[in-house]
Amino acid sequence: MPGNLQSFLKQLSDDIEKQTLIKITLGNRRIKSSDLKNVFIKPVLIKNIPKLSFVYRYPTKDITSNFPAKESIFLIEKLLQDEFYNADIFTTENDFHFAFQKNNTAKIVSKGPSLKSTANALQHDKEKIRIIQATNAGYLKELGITTAEGIVKKEKQDKYKQINSYVEIIDGIIKDLQFNESLQVVDMGSGKGYLTFALYDYLVNKLHRDAAVTGIELREELVTKCNNIARAAGYNQLVFKSGTIENAVLSNTDILIALHACDTATDEAIFSGIKVNAKIIICAPCCHKQIRKQMAPENELKSITKHGILLERQAEITTDAIRALLLEAHGYKTRVFEFIATEHTPKNVLIVGVKQDKPLHPTQFFLEKVAGLKLLFGIQSHYLETLIDRL
Question: Parallel, antiparallel, or unpaired for β 182-188 and 210-217?
Fold first, then answer.
């Protein structure tokens, strides 16, 4: 096996050096439950520097990263050892198929080229076609994202990417779901309104849905500003209201969203969604303080939680794991995944719950898992659990 794998990597290295490589595809997952479905790789030029562009394909998004050739070879080797059984190299001279066999040996099959190189194959520095296009969204100018000419400001590139990644995720969540004729959406803690405006734009102008979107925000000045921008844009069913997540009164809500609600405000938002039986609950938590203060395991985990940074990260994971389980307990099929790459925002975990007509497991099944996690980490109570118990 190592010889064949190294021969494959040597062939790949030679093709990169000769500039005959067109693309690489990694597939056939080793772990079938893994969210990483494929990796697609191609040579690109970034500021006239040759690199390989890796596209990591997940169920609801693609993540793209670019690496120098030497680092790329190492990453491909690692992916074939840990994630995938198969790889295909397409070059201008030959195609090469690499596959690990059931007996843990590997083989390489070569055949004539099936693809043709194009003159602009290495051109990479071009604008990606995005759902929310800067030139067609006047509200982005009013929100400070673009110039008067509809060009994204240099310092707002990350925010623009975040907006589009958010809309792409929403698209993946709702595209196969059935809603009533009029869609009711509440965005709790809408802040400066970037994502709220983009969501309304997407639902009404891209999907052509009859949608009413309400943004709830504590700061009066932001509420006033966003309402003025919405009216100027002709977004008649986009409304911003002053209030807190805790005290918001909801009814007839199809989609409830709370992005970057601090600490237990995320629990308040999830609880509000459960109370009104929202079809979809979407949260991006931050500032996981409530559980962190309680965690005091009396087992081997004490070695982890004695370090401040590790305690903080473990508290985040445990807090969100319990949130996901409690959503499952109340009939929501739940996923937790990356919202956007960490170079764009450190607050990048998204919890998504979709209400099921017939849950796969009874409530008690998930509540026992919650109890087990609390016991393992020495946790007395989770705030979301406390809210639900009051109900």
Answer: parallel
Report the pLDDT value the prediction gives residue 344, as an integer from 0 to 100: 41
Domain ranges of the chain: 2-111, 148-390
Structure-token match 């030497």, residue found: 70
Tell me, what DSSP letter sits at residue 205? Answer: I
C-alpha 256/C-alpha 215 separation (Å) is 10
How far is residue 355 CA from its own chain's centroid?
Answer: 19
Residue 230 CA, distance from chain mean position: 27
Cβ atoms of 207 and 176 closer than 8 Å: no
19 and 124 Cβ atoms separated by less than 8 Å: no
Once rounded to an integer, what is the mean pLDDT over residues 203-209? 91
Q: Candidates 3.30.390.60, 3.40.50.150, 3.30.2350.10, 3.30.830.10; correct CATH number of 148-390?
A: 3.40.50.150
How many CB atoms within 10 Å of residue 248? Answer: 17
Contact between 313 and 211 (Cβ < 8 Å): no
What pLDDT is recorded for position 265?
92
Cα-atom radius of gyration of the chain, to the nearest Å?
A: 24
Q: What would the mean pLDDT of 240-251 be, rounded to a whole number?
A: 91
Helix axes 220-233, 194-201, angle to 10 degrees: 30
What letter represents residue 371's amino acid? A
Question: How does pLDDT run across 172-186, given as a tens digit for each residue?
Answer: 888 778 887 789 999
The DSSP bridge pattern shows strands 84-91 and 95-100 to be antiparallel
Per-residue pLDDT at 264 exceeds 50 = yes
Through-space distance between the first and last CA atoms of the chain, rounded to whole angstroms: 58
Q: Tell me how far apart the alpha carbons of residues 176 and 13 are, in angstroms, rounded to a whole number.
A: 42
Pairing of strands 95-100, 106-111: antiparallel
